[in-house]
Model the fold of this input.
Amino acid sequence: MKTFIATIIMLIACQYSLAQSVNSLFENFKHEQKAEYQSVSPFMMKIARLFMNDDDAEPRFIKGIKSVKVLDLEECSAKVKESFKEQVSQLKLKGYEPLLTVKEDGETIKILAKTDEQSIRELLLYTVSQEECSAVLMKGKIRKEDIATIISDNQKKNNGRK
Done:
């Protein structure tokens, strides 16, 4: 009986240790051959904010972003893409809530967010398919009303009213 309980505890511990955090996903794949990785630091985001006008919602949205990480594995080998898919499926997403999930023709796109009452603190987007594997992580304090304004403005543009 002790062996059985010890085995179950070991299995649970292994599962927990195999789970990946969002940041480790970027760290594990940014150095792969043909991987494209870009990181915009908080300092660079502050410099970019100096050149923005506050009148529109889009610059206010961008001003709320503190840092951005972008990972694109489209040119990587199939082995790297399979490893990425596996690690994405094992991500520890505690605190993230799904905003959008699209599954079509073997491609999965997910947008997840960590939020507080007034703002989005982290926005994670990832795409997984046979040909394309990519992820984007934005951190900051993005106001929900700015996102709603951007969506509303784009809907008006697409409906030909603006």
Q: What stands out?
A: Residues 1-19 have pLDDT under 50 and may be disordered. Residues 19-158 form one domain. The chain has one domain: 19-158. Residues 30 and 37 are 6 Å apart (CA to CA).
